[in-house]
Each structure stands twice: as structure tokens, then as C-alpha cells.
Amino acid sequence: MDVVLTIAGSDSGGGAGIQADLKTFQELKTFGTSVITALTAQNTCGVQGIYPTTPEFVAQQMTSVFQDFNVKALKTGMLFSTEIIETVARILQQQTAHIIVDPVMIAKGGAALLQDDAVHALNTKLLPLATVLTPNIPEAEVISGVKIRNEQDIFNAAKRILQLGVKCVVMKGGHFEEADTATDTVFFENGSSFSMETKRINTKHTHGTGCTFSSAITAFLGRGFTLHESIVEAKKFVQLAIEHPLNIGHGHGPTNHFA
Ligand code: PLP
């Protein structure tokens, strides 16, 4: 059984964060382990509270996992602070596992899941170690410093991000509200790229889609799929999850990992 890891925040509502990651890992036939960076009091209506873990305890959890398991691939999600990012990056420097970075910044309801001053640490400490980065448009803008209004801007932002040392960047197009398709474009360090276009689904039940997508890439990479295959298969998994809403809770319902 291939072991994978998520280093992320807990969502008490079960739709995003660690909970979405572990459900995805399980559905995709991998053994999921977890390092919790922060607790959130959260449901489908929003984030009511955040309680970060200390960097020391993040390190202790990572050591426990790495001492016992051969982790094939891992993802990072909500990392919250400069101190936690620096700790995670320091320990990951000694690892050979594929590293997928989901640069979680702001929840759909507006809660800040990454402190503003932590972007510098993300860019300089963690991204040089990353196999894959999965930003949405607002996250790509913050990381690259490029204001994105059209396809050329997406290309320019991706180029800047690759210069930070990331091997592959998946630019998630779902935040372009006017388009009736949702196109994700994947850029590799060797200059090649490809696009994945899907019909836009009009739904408010998208809580945790980013977490689910990045953990699905992690699971497929952990099982030995190529990078290209892992991204394409993860996209299919997330698309099915969005197409079959669960109707749980009173707000933005969670993606459906059973779909
Ligand atoms: N809460 C946690 C702990 C997360 O890691 C994430 C991931 O992006 C979110 C919330 C965001 O949820 P949403 O998809 O509703 O923006």
C-alpha cells in the first residue's frame, strides 16, 4: 500500500482541509497520514475560529510520520504562518517524496488561512522544493506579483512561478467568473504546457475542491502515475465530485468524494 501525507489544517465541518485530503486518499486507494498545522472551527457557512499548532509540534508530527513510513508523495495545504512554513520546508529538504503545494490563502467565506507576511517564506523556502503548485487565479497573482486579466497574464504569472523553482504549476481557471468553461492550464519547467477544459458547473457546493484536487494529485503520484497522468486523473476525480453535490449543511456544501 502506498503511503501519502497531508500537512494541512483541520476543517471541523469535514469538507476541506485534512478531512477532505484523507477522504480523497482513501477513495484513491492510498494510505493517508496527516500532520495538522492548525485547527479551524468551521462548517459549510464559514470559518468561526482558527487555532494554530506550534511550529515545534508540527515538526514533531512530521518526524513521527517520516521515521515510520516511506512516504511516496505529500501535499501541503493551510500552513498559516511564516514560522510553520519555515519549519515544514526545513524538514522537507531531507525528503525525496513528491511535494504538492496547494497555496491555501483565503477560504471562500473570506477567512485568512495564511497570514499576509507568510507569502515571502512560501515563495523562498517551500516553492523551491515543490514538484507541483496548484494556485487559483487570486493565489497565482499574490505569488507571482502579476495581475491576471487574460491568457497572456496567466502565462506570464506561470513563468514567474516556475522561476521560483517549482517544477510544474497548475493554474486553476475556475475563478474567471465570466467564462462558461473552466480551463486549467498546466505549465512545466521545460517550457511545455497543456490545458484541461471542462464545462463550468453552476453550483454553490464547491467547499474543499482545491484541497480535493491537490490531494488527488498526491494520491496518484504516490501510486506511481506520471505527473501528467496524475494531474489529468485528479481533475476527473474533482469534476465528478463537483457534479454530484451532497446537499449537506446550510452553506457551501462539500465536494462529494464518493462520486
Ligand atoms: N479550511 C481549511 C482548513 C482548508 O485547508 C481549506 C482549503 O483550501 C479551506 C478551509 C478552504 O475551503 P473553501 O474551499 O471553502 O475555500
TrEMBL record:
InterPro entries: HMP/HMP-P_kinase_dom, PM/HMP-P_kinase-1, Ribokinase-like. GO terms for cellular component: cytosol. The keyword Nucleotide-binding applies. One of its GO terms (molecular function) is phosphomethylpyrimidine kinase activity. Residues 11-256 form the Pyridoxamine kinase/Phosphomethylpyrimidine kinase domain. It catalyses: 4-amino-2-methyl-5-(phosphooxymethyl)pyrimidine + ATP = 4-amino-2-methyl-5-(diphosphooxymethyl)pyrimidine + ADP; 4-amino-5-hydroxymethyl-2-methylpyrimidine + ATP = 4-amino-2-methyl-5-(phosphooxymethyl)pyrimidine + ADP + H(+). Its EC number is 2.7.1.49, 2.7.4.7. Belongs to the ThiD family. This is Hydroxymethylpyrimidine/phosphomethylpyrimidine kinase. It comes from Lysinibacillus telephonicus.
